[in-house]
Amino acid sequence: MNSEPNLVNDEDAEEVTNTKDKLARYRASCEKLDKMSSVKMDAIEDSDIPFSEDNPKIAYDDKDDDGDDDKSIQCSTSIETFQRDVAKSLPPSEIVRTLCLKNPEKLLHHCLPITCLQLLEGIVLVASEGPSVLIKMAYFEECAFERFQLFPNQCSISGMEFTLYPSLECGDNPVLWHKRRDKPYDHIYIGFCWAGSVGTVIRLTRTVKTGLKLLECDDGICENKLVNFDFIPVSAKWLEGGTILGLLSVLNYFVIYERIEDNAGNFTNLKELKRIRCSKSETLFSGKIYGESRNNIRIFAGTIFNGICVWDSNGDEAIIKHELKCHDGIIFSLEYFADRKLLLSTSDDRTVAAWQFTENVKGEEEVILLRRFYGHDARVWRALSIHGYLLSVGESSDVRVDILNDGKVHKSWKAHDGAPIFDCVYDQDVEILYTGGNDGSIRKWPKWWYRLKPRILSFDVIPFDDENDSDSRIQGSGRRLENKDYPKSVILLDINHVIVSMESGRIIGLTWEGKQFELLYDERCEGYSIIKISPDHKILAVAGNNGHFYTAQISFSQNESTKSSILHAKKIFMTKISWNIISMIWLDVSRLLIVCFNRIVALLLQDSENDERSDIQFIQTFDLNLRRPGIPAAVEIHGKHVVLGDELGSLHLLRYHKTNNPISTFEKAHKDGVTSLMFYDETLYTTGRDGVVKTFSVNINPENDIEAEFVPLTSLSLGFDWITGMYINMTQMLVCGFQKEDFIIHSYNEKRTLAKIPCSGGGNRKWDFKYGHGKQGSRNASFTFVKDKEIFYTYLPMEGYLNVMIKEGLHCRTINCAVQYNNNERYGIDYFTGGEDGTLKWFQWDASNQRISCIQNMENHLSSVRSVCIFNDVSNRTLVFSGGGRSQLCIYSLDFANDRMELIKEIILVKTACKQTEGDVRIMDIAVTEGKDDLWCFSACSDGYVRVLYYNAVKAKFKIVGQLKGNAHAVMKIQLLKTGSTFKNVFICGVTSNGYLIVWSWNQNDVISLQGSDKKSVAEKTPCFIRLLRRTAFLSMKVIESPKMLDTNVYSLVCGGDDCSVSLWNLEINRRSSDSIECIISEKWTRDHIQRGAVVGVDLNSDYVYSLSNDQIVGFWNWDGELQKKVCAGVSDCQGFVVDQSNGCVMCFGKGVSWVPIMIRDND
């Protein structure tokens, strides 16, 4: 009888070992070389594959064994092949409609909380999002996640477990899969996912030709088999090479299954082999299974009653080993690290516990509670032990890094902008942490361990003796021995070099490694000196006492023996100015402003043959009449104008050579002084000591350039005590400043705080920040400051703070409102959403690539956003109105060409609502209409009034001019019924929280009377019609002109409320006079047996009526009240929907968003 051939010989084993070593070295060097996005991970696993420097793809042998000519390796290909194919030939509307027909019962797309993460072999990242799994090659930033919906819409995956599956051709040695030429680099992962009591088994392959592929997915549709259990699993583990599946149930018993396949290797079912019950009957919330064989299993079971039960199984019975208690809440997660015999538990009590398994003198196993870790502000969901650190994430959005041995906190930061973090995984090969949150985003943290703790740079202290002792003096300094030299101010030459101005007048250079260079000395700078480096870091400007000024050239040389760089400085120009110098500002590499109380001296440094810029030309002296001397900021505009910011917060525009005084001034741009100015993309950015970033347009008359004005655009408060400046590298803009004892680095693009550096608070001229200079510093930064006569330095690897998003999310909390905007000139579909987190988001859904792209995030609201409306005004400008808590109404203008949304007006409709009391008035809904040359905005409020806002397009002024009185209950929804083509007669239809329908009349006479009234007067109108329609609150309403009636005064009204019913009414409105109307309302039908939750959204058109309830059911009715179809929205805590009839889908929102098809096929 022939034996099985040995697939591993000595030569193969050596090559396998070399391959592993290469892979390990490659992963470790990816981060260091910053090439993770360009190097293809698959290619490194074959020693015969050369790298190509010129081609981002990696070539290998032209011919495979199958004869195919393959020129490159793809990092991934589309799983949803159908979606990619149609995207090349169809417009967006046709793509969505075709997808609706392709997947009539499943979600078209969604952005939901990320509940689970798993990293497979350090290469493939798998995440669970609602009923779907997402997969991605972890190292390839250019590749998006592929999405596979495994479960029905209403399910949410609660856990998953993957393992590397042995191949039939390669036996039990998966490493040899890389050597097969018929299927090169073939990996097969087998996974088990479960949602509640339903589970499924899937197979994931990674090959050189097709990239990532789910074998259960065909033509974009998943055909995986679902298995129903009679229990709910809390943990799973693949055993015995992936043939056996072990499940831990919520009732603390262990179930062993055998995976059943057909002849083609497709999963068909799970066959239960044995059920092992633990004698301690507990209800579990979490668990962990450790072991490789069904006959040797250890179970860690976390109960809902604060305890942890540890028991073993030999395949026949359960043996309880330990019962652990220290928590005061439910055990949320358990993680066991076998190499250290360490168990980590997280709990509802906001703590993490570390348990050590040891042996006593008798050889018996004992468990010791090492330590409890505190510090989280909310529940802790997950904890990991990495390199002596304990890393934990939780509901407060914090990632905490504690030292495992002593329990001290090492680092903590907000990773998901306030959204709870449910899971995290760690790639130990390249030391990257991945986190998934409630906002639907997945983020990576390459430098998670790096703590921004300033280090002290040492320098030589030179004492000064008597004047007669020339050997111990520096060129005539009179400082004595007891007064040793110390630093006065610092600047950063680049990321690694610091230039220091000393009290004696010395100027020295320091490196972060501790090297020191004696650069310059001038006795006239003793006790007072200012140093500024040019933007190209080649010229140093130095100012001293009594107007003394000089420049020096900065250069580097190399020590031939040590190969280290040496810093040099040489004086090239010296002069004296008639006034004392307060500050200096470089405008560019050749222009320098010298600030002297109320005068500004502009100098031009011209290049000489050796690039010394020693030929200095006087440009102009500007005279400023300032109440407080000093110009802390300046910027040049197109080489002809310069903008100055003064200590009182005003902006001044000056013109070279034509006038010595400002040609335009904008008073009090900032309350407490301007700190920095930046001119970028034809926009002026200003920052101030008031913690606000503002933008201005500088409008200069092209025919007469001494006529100009500042036009304010946007204002953003970051909550800093003092913003020091803005910095830009490529397209990434940073805002820096001081908050209490910390230096804050904030991303202007990503709208989040990146880092906090502890420091003294930042005195004038005693700190500096540098971002992105030089080849090695293009993605890094450094910060230095002087405190207690010491020099502190901090290096910031910015790749660990910027561009951490690998999957974009949306709101941190529930989404309350949404509106869709169709722009035929844009490829995707634009949405504007407002949430409980107080933000207004603008994002785009690209149906062809099944991807959400966040365009802009606005944080102007003081409280939650309850309503959003979009409208084109008379000048064809697109405006967005958003309202919410504290009766705050924000109005934005949209620039689709540049993807920019700017705040143009912020109004508090009820002034008393600014107080944080229970009686705060909230804006519940907004409706806008246009007049001849103006706009009218109607805001439904929670105090029972509809407030009217008038906008004059000519004067660009907003004014509250009236209010419509209700019945003292909140007006939940309103809609304008406009008669005619002009703003002559308008009916405002509203529904209230106590079940009433109210109709108000608004006509041209109201407009005329309001325009001629006193500025302080506010008109009030009472309802023309009011009728009780239901005993419970209205939550949704939609009115259209009835398509079934010829009379244009008859409307169809559909409404829903918290009694779970949907109603259709006929509403006839006849105007009797300018102030009176007649309303006749009759009910057509009411349906309350389909939807089991409050109806939060309704819509209708000429064919169908739509409804959405917060139990996730979307109903589809005909006009006779017959249910045609219902689908599940897949979003928990639904708040509403946006029906897109042209595309045949509906976007549902709540705790996330989803798109579901609503079209009815002919055979339905």
Automatic annotation (TrEMBL):
Intracellular or extracellular location(s): Cytoplasm
Protein name as it appears in the record: tRNA (34-2'-O)-methyltransferase regulator WDR6
Residue ranges of the region described as Disordered: 44-71
Similarity remark: Belongs to the WD repeat WDR6 family.
Each WD repeat, start to end: 324-356
Principal location class: cytoplasm
Extent of the signal sequence: none
Record keywords, A-Z: Cytoplasm, Repeat, tRNA processing, WD repeat
